[in-house]
Amino acid sequence: MSTAIEIGIFGGSGFYEFLKETTDIVVDTPYGRPSSPISVGHVEGRAVAFIARHGRDHQFSPAQVPARANLWALHSLGVTRVLGPCAAGSLSPTVHPGDFVVLDQLVDRTTGRADTYYDRGTVHHVSFADPYCHELRSIALKAGASASIAMHDSGTVVVIPGPRFATRAESRSYREQGFHAINMTQYPEAYLARELGMCYCGIALITDYDTGVEHDVDMPPVTEADVFAFFQSNVHRVRELLTKLIPSIPSELGCQCAAARGPLPHS
């Protein structure tokens, strides 16, 4: 059984625990404490660290999630691969509630979030042209296929500030720009992982159609209750996917994500 903690997982809205027979670790970082204690356990011999992204009592709204502390804490434990399942709304009539989207691009529309470790000391410019690890994406798609889960092999997520949902005009604009999903937390989480040289895979569970789809004007817009209820009723599918995915992750890196890391403050 592996003792090194190789894999980190963030649980999103309605996904507050994953592992059984865990040990909680409280980690202090230069950026404060993470959203929750880190639960460490094993999946088929692979050591896994789990953080409830919004806190175990969902006390952190999207803009308040301590993303820098969360990623730094995982990095300090030796994590090199991060899986980021999240709830997202669909902006496409071909992406349906219940589908999973293995994201390959993101567009940041947030403001004011602490989104870099390089805000002091050495200046380091990090390539983020391809936000998600291609190796983890491939493994996630294969795991989904083996679990007979409807998976989209690519998709662009637009990340909005929250906590409010989009207006109809905003949602229409995002659709016209070709975005596939809408979410509130993929940025800066994915980017901070890249700064730390960790592989990151964003897996969106589609919970709703945001403000509706163009051909159905009578479809009501999404509500918080809708998102939470749908995610809760489908969280077993997220667990099933992760349980299939984790044992398939190779011990040796097959990507260049680690090359992005420069000299870090506090390290």
Description:
The chain has 267 residues and is an alpha/beta fold. The chain has a single domain (5-260), classed as Nucleoside phosphorylase domain (Rossmann fold, 3-Layer(aba) Sandwich), CATH 3.40.50. The protein has five helices and eleven strands. Strands 1, 2, 3, 4, 5, 6, 7, 8, 9, 10 and 11 form an eleven-stranded mixed beta sheet that branches. It is globular. The model has no long low-confidence stretch (mean pLDDT 91).
Q: Return the string of H and E elements.
A: EEEEHEEEHEEHEHEH
Number of domains: 1
- Strands, total number: 11
CATH homology superfamily: Nucleoside phosphorylase domain
| Termini Cα gap | 29 Å
Q: What is the count of helical runs?
A: 5
Task: Write down the CATH topology.
Answer: Rossmann fold
